Known about the structure:
With 232 residues, the chain is mostly helical. It has helices at 14-39, 45-91, 93-105, 111-121, 125-136, 146-166, 175-200, 205-230. It has one domain.
Amino acid sequence: MHDHPHNEEHFKSPAMVRDIVIGMADGLTVPFALAAGLSGVVQANNIIITAGVAEIVAGSIAMGLGGYLSARTESDHYKAELKREYFEVERVPHKEKEEIHEVLETYGISEATRIKVADELALDKDKWVDFMMKYELGLEQPDDKRARKSAANISISYIVGGFIPLTAYLFTSHPHEGLLYSSVITLLALFIFGYFKSKATGQSPLAGALRTTFIGAAAATAAFGIASLIKF
């Protein structure tokens, strides 16, 4: 027999990638849709650029705040459950041991082994609680700096994505011309973003790229059409 090295490749930063995906996806789509909508009703590129920059600033703050609050809620929830588990292993250890049995039983572990594992875990309160948090509640300890990191990741990604559709209006003379170039640039960016996002998360890169591009195009088309219909 020959031993072949087996290197397991697991994704290391799912939280960071999730933040970037959230920020970049909205950053590419929302300002693009706004610029497309305004292109149907205004005659000056500077108006679109001003409105676009204002939206990017407001959107990045709102999205970053949302990411911060979401991460803080996750952290607060973990701490509350951790406190409860420590209380329960101290006050009702027999009940917690029963829960260890229930968790292990779902994996087909024999009763004799379940008893031994429960007794071993009960010798170390911290490991006992850690086991209950992971396998009973399905909770992993979040990074204490996660909220700030999430806010920064989402905000920066939103800003980067948001300025892509606006660049075309900087070197064109009319909104309709700007929209044409902006559409090409943004749809290409959406395709590339969707491709690598899907590849990083283990999905079909081509399908993800097409899906992301379609959503962005649909949003911009709807905004342009609605703005053209209701303009005064």
